[in-house]
Amino acid sequence: MGSDPIYGGSLKEKDMRKKVVSVIGGHSCTAEVEIEAQNLGKELAKVVDILACGGLSGVMEAVCSGFKAGNGLTIGFIPTYNKADANKFVDISIPTGLGLARNVLVVKSADLVIALPGRAGTLSEIAYCIQFTIPVISFNSWDIPGVIKTKTIEETIAKAKEILKGGI
Q1: Residue 108 forms part of a structural domain
Q2: 168 or 61, which is more confident?
Q3: What is the DSSP string of 41-57?
Q4: What is the extent of the structural domain holding 92?
């Protein structure tokens, strides 16, 4: 194969990039959603190598906690310029200094986005997914046209596997 001027190396190498799933949701959440996010993270670690998120508290911290328990690598796109603002389960803290505009980075870094309950920030990330045609699974979250609704972790993981293998 020839060389790829954008990615470098062989054309085959670019197809071997690791899959990234971004998980979005509220910076504060109920105890029930926190447990769901942790369990989702544990199950996602069996499916993908890298989890991206906004890197702060609530759903973001809970899903990172679960993903780390499954030995996965976590990336947090922090809205401030301070790496230390990331939750303790973020392996790679990327301080953007962009405030809420960092939401586009959370979405665009992903092959798939999974939304848990959240408010306007989560909705903006879902809107970016729809705008950029990035598949988004709404796990007991927003029910709007363009999202794939799921109600259980098992259903969410099954749908994620299907999407990541090119099924949707």
Answers
A1: yes
A2: 61
A3: HHHHTTT-SEEEE--SS
A4: 18-151
